[in-house]
């Protein structure tokens, strides 16, 4: 039985005998005695204490996700960014240094560079595929390396095995953001990462309803994060965890459908004369099991043309998210990656004409039809005439 099947069949919330797990909407729990309260608070006996850090619905989601990622344990947070915050506060101290893959989600870089600097924690970015640069920028104080694989929006794969060897030799915590591929298409822990992180409002949710984050890895690491969560209170809600547990059950089927659509659209974009470049796993990877439904393209003409193209879309939603049933479009240079300077954007390839698409679950012909008319409107400056 593979880990996805096991995850689907694993429901841990011991609430009722309902086949679909019930939701545990409660702030607190009854203790049978003062002694039991003391023992649960101290951790001497297991059991729920208070929903800031123990809740059956959240526990169910964490355990299902851990199984699918091949992890000993997992812990959920209120957002992907609060998961990043948890990593930094739990594992870093004054004087420590962090290396981030260059060009990753702008807010992740901003969090480390803008806010931790004043606490004496420094962060530098590295071109993800430049091995010499990783070695050169490594300091004796480097304590954490963070990559997205693939990165968003340029879909660059990190060499996880190589980075794992580098980090193990230097006693560095190696974190892989697996939001774009999900546990269905990549298990970074099995490739040598120490911790895997997801923004769960993306493909794991699948319908754009929730905001959340989760980190999976060895129990020793997750216990440290759990202790932080108890003090920080940046927890996932029971309702969101319940939604996400159900979503995990359909993740494999949804990813296959997203990927089929992305493949058809990328093949069409590859031969479109108004498209200067396409970034996608379909153009770079042979292994079909790790393709990604997110891809980007540079339209001829720069930012004005890119904006006209986005504004001419009728079916595709202008929406800064990924992993929805609807196909979504973003202009990274002015939204998700606007926190990088112009020089950094140029350095990491965030072109002003770059348009990011996340293929939804509509019929691929309809998505291609909308792209065809919007690209033509943008380039030829026609009035949008789509239905
Ligand atoms: C790859 C990636 N990681 C992390 C995040 C942050 O997650 P959240 O929006 O849940 O805080 C995002 C957000 O869009 C993302 O794209």
What can be said about this structure in brief?
The protein has 13 helices and 12 strands.
Features:
single chain, 387 residues, alpha/beta, Aspartate Aminotransferase, domain 2, Aspartate Aminotransferase, domain 1, five-stranded mixed beta sheet, 39% helix, 15% strand, globular, binds pyridoxal-5'-phosphate
Report what the structure shows.
By secondary structure, the protein is of the alpha/beta class. The protein has 2 domains: about 5-250, Type I PLP-dependent aspartate aminotransferase-like (Major domain) (Aspartate Aminotransferase, domain 2), CATH 3.40.640; about 250-380, Aspartate Aminotransferase, domain 1, CATH 3.90.1150.10. It has 13 helices and 12 strands. It has helices spanning about 5-10, 35-40, 55-70, 80-90, 105-115, 130-135, 160-170, 180-185, 220-230, 240-270, 305-310, 340-350, 365-380, and strands at about 75, 95-100, 120-125, 140-150, 175, 195-200, 215, 275-280, 295-300, 315-320, 330, 355-360. The strands form 2 sheets. It has a 7-stranded mixed sheet with strand order 1-7-6-5-4-2-3, with helices on both faces. A 5-stranded mixed sheet has the order 8-9-12-11-10. Strand 2 (about 95-100), helix 5 and strand 3 form a beta-alpha-beta unit. It is globular, with a radius of gyration of 22 Å. The N and C termini lie far apart (about 45 Å). The model has no long low-confidence stretch (mean pLDDT about 95). The structure holds pyridoxal-5'-phosphate. Pyridoxal-5'-phosphate binds near residues 80, 148, 152, 177 and 179.
């Amino acid at each position: 039985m593979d880990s996805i099947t096991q995850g689907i069949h694993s429901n841990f919330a011991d609430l009722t005998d309902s086949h679909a797990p019930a939701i545990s909407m409660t702030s607190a729990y009854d203790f049978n005695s003062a002694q039991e309260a003391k023992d649960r608070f101290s951790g001497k006996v297991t059991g729920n204490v208070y929903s800031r850090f123990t809740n059956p619905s959240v526990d169910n989601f964490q355990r299902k996700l851990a199984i699918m990622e091949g992890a000993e344990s997992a812990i959920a947070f209120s957002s992907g960014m609060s998961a990043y915050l948890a990593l930094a506060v739990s594992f870093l101290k004054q004087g420590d240094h962090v290396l981030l893959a260059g060009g990753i989600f702008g807010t992740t870089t901003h969090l480390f560079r803008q806010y931790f600097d004043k606490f004496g924690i420094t962060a530098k970015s590295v071109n993800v595929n430049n091995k010499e640069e990783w070695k050169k920028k490594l300091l004796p104080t480097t304590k954490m390396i963070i990559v997205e694989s693939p990165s968003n929006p340029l879909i660059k794969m990190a060499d996880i095995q190589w980075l794992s060897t580098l980090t193990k030799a230097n006693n560095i915590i190696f974190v892989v953001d697996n939001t774009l591929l999900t546990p269905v298409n990549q298990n970074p822990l099995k490739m040598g990462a120490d911790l895997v992180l997801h923004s769960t409002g993306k493909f794991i949710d699948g319908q754009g309803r929730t905001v959340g984050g989760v980190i999976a890895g060895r129990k020793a690491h997750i216990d440290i994060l759990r202790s932080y969560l108890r003090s920080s209170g940046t927890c996932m809600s029971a309702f969101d965890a319940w939604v996400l547990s159900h979503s995990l059950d359909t993740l494999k089927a949804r990813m296959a459908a997203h990927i089929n659509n992305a493949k058809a659209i990328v093949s069409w974009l590859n031969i479109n004369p108004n498209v200067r470049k396409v970034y996608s796993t379909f153009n770079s990877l042979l292994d079909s099991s790790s393709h990604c439904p997110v891809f980007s393209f540079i339209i001829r003409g720069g930012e004005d043309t890119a904006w006209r193209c986005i504004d001419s879309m009728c079916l595709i939603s202008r929406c800064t998210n990924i992993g929805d049933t609807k196909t979504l479009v973003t202009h990274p240079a002015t939204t998700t990656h606007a926190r990088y300077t112009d020089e950094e954007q140029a350095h990491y390839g965030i072109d002003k004409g770059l348009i990011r698409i996340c293929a939804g679950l509509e019929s691929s012909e309809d998505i291609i039809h909308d792209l065809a008319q919007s690209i033509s409107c943008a380039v030829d400056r026609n009035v949008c005439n789509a239905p």
